[in-house]
Amino acid sequence: MEALISILIGLLTACGVYLVLRARTFPVVMGLTLLSYGVNLFLFATGRLTIGQPAVIDAQAPGYADPLPQALVLTAIVISFAMTAFVIMLSLKARAELGNDHVDGHADEEGRA
Amino acid sequence: MSHLVILPLLLPLLAGALLLLVRRALPLTVRRRLNLVAVLAQVGVALALLLAVADGSVLTYQLGDWPAPYGIVLVADRLSAWMVLLTALLALFALLYAIRGTDAGSRHFQPLFQLQLFGLCGAFLTGDLFNLFVFFEVLLLASYGLLLHGGGAERTRAGLHFVVVNLVGSTLFLFAAGTLYGVTGTLNMADLAGKLAALGPDELGLARAGALLLFAVFALKAALFPLYLWLPTAYAATSAPVAALFAVMTKVGIYAILRIQTLWFGDGAGELAGLLDPWLLPLALVTMALGSLGALASTTLRIQIGYLVLVSIGVLLTAIALGDRDSIAAALYYLVHTTLATGAFYLLAEGIARRRGAAGDRLIDAPTMPHAGQVGTLFFIAAILVAGLPPFSGFLGKLMVLRAALDDPAMAWILAVVLTSGLLGIVALARSGSLLLLRAGPGEPPAATPGRAELLPATALLALCIGLTLGAGPLSAFTQATAEQLLVPEHYVETVLGGDMEAHAR
């Protein structure tokens, strides 16, 4: 399971980084989203991967899942969700005001970016 | 437990919420006054906090009364209180300028202004790494709104870069915080200090990676080379009071670097001691050199100020990299000076741009501006302050940094870069000053002449800088005491983790 999770996080992050470096705002937004997915999974895994362990106190429990990463990842999801919404609105505004969807607002590189 | 520690957070949060609720109900003049009252109260609270910690005590506030390191804790020491007061003072003058018309475009300017203060003060006061991330997001989200305030294509373009760069930075912050948590099992900064020092050899690699990732995030916020490219354009594109307020935003990165450098990587940190040392000094010197070249090459005054900000970031981080008591004290003094002077300069730059008609703040010939004498005097003082010429605070700050550098093995490099970049800064400012003020050329004069009162906030900030010069003795005594406190982090750690909710006097 560790290998699968790490490959998944790595893949999401690599795709995210690649897309963030693109020249159009839509791939950049997608890249930011993938990066935040990757980091959320990563945060979730920082409490170590355990199966079937309770997170709240239970007298019979043999051990516990770490509850803190779950709280952290919830915060991170909310924040990244809001930020994604904001950056989408900003990209639309940029498209409307600059007349194209290039991140630098240059129309002259049409088709090459 | 002293509630004073949480007041600098509650006040702007509640004021921001109130201003958001009444944004349609009350006329603009009333909302402006409310905002101004809240910021004035913030200055008062910040002063009270500074006086409370001036004797060397570390005040903690455990939210929900959960004991550290399990709960979230706010910590006020000399450094935090110093930064909170600086933020409040700068915000006061930025707001005094903004309520002269900049804030009229959107009903959300006033709430966002308060939320920006909330994020800034929270970042300075929190003692929890993840909480620091949350406050970074609060201040960034408010800053996105403020940066874009007023609209316009140039602002949108610069805003898009600023937002995307900072979002990537936030992701890196989460990776770094997650790694450190995975290795140490804690997010409390004081607890981390002990846990990082006691790590076994198996986990050192991960801890190093996490800590350096965190350093990269803070370097991005502080606009350190090579992560500075967003700064000059973003600050030049936004409105003057927002740019002035942003002068303290890079200092959040500086604060965070100084905090982790002294708390985690000081002499008592075991294997991780001095982790940032190979990076800080070279990067700071390169930032300084490139900043001064950028200032020379700028085509508008505001871009030029942005590059001069980079020079000051370089000076600050050089002093922090030296890492002894005198250099950190010098950094803290210079930090206040450069923040106030930069804020004044941005306010002044818009005043100049509005007096030159179509030429704006571009460094080209334009008709003689109204109030040229007054504007010229202010520009002259601001330039002396920013370039670090005697007799003002910029010179004193740089002198203190250089004196602290004399014993360092890298002294020759530091002296060479600081002095050369100072000279280049003077040349750049002399050139723009003569182009803006001394050469009258053809062109359309501005349709409406702005009043002289608009120059008052900038004048007041410059006066504050001169006050810094006059009060250099007691102020540097305070920064010396702050540096001493930072270099003995054990007291901070004990107070935060002690479980004792009373303030420990040293």
TrEMBL record, chain A:
Membrane topology per record: Multi-pass membrane protein
Keywords: Cell membrane, Membrane, Transmembrane, Transmembrane helix
Subcellular location: Cell membrane
InterPro entries in UniProt: CPA3_antiporter_subunitC (IPR050601), NUOK/Mnh_C1-like (IPR039428)
Record bears the keyword tRNA-binding: no
GO cellular component: plasma membrane
Similarity comment text for this entry: Belongs to the CPA3 antiporters (TC 2.A.63) subunit C family.
Transmembrane segments: 71-92
Pfam family, one: Oxidored_q2
Upper lineage: Bacteria, Pseudomonadati, Pseudomonadota, Gammaproteobacteria, Chromatiales
The name this protein goes by in its record: Multisubunit potassium/proton antiporter PhaC subunit
Main location: membrane
TrEMBL record, chain B:
InterPro entries: CPA3_Na-H_Antiporter_D, NADH_UbQ_OxRdtase, ND/Mrp_TM
A Pfam family: Proton_antipo_M
Topology class, membrane: Multi-pass membrane protein
Transmembrane found in the keyword field: yes
Keywords: Cell membrane, Membrane, Transmembrane, Transmembrane helix
UniProt-annotated location(s): Cell membrane; Membrane
Entries under NCBIfam families matching the protein: PRK12666.1
Protein's name according to its UniProt entry: Multisubunit potassium/proton antiporter PhaD subunit
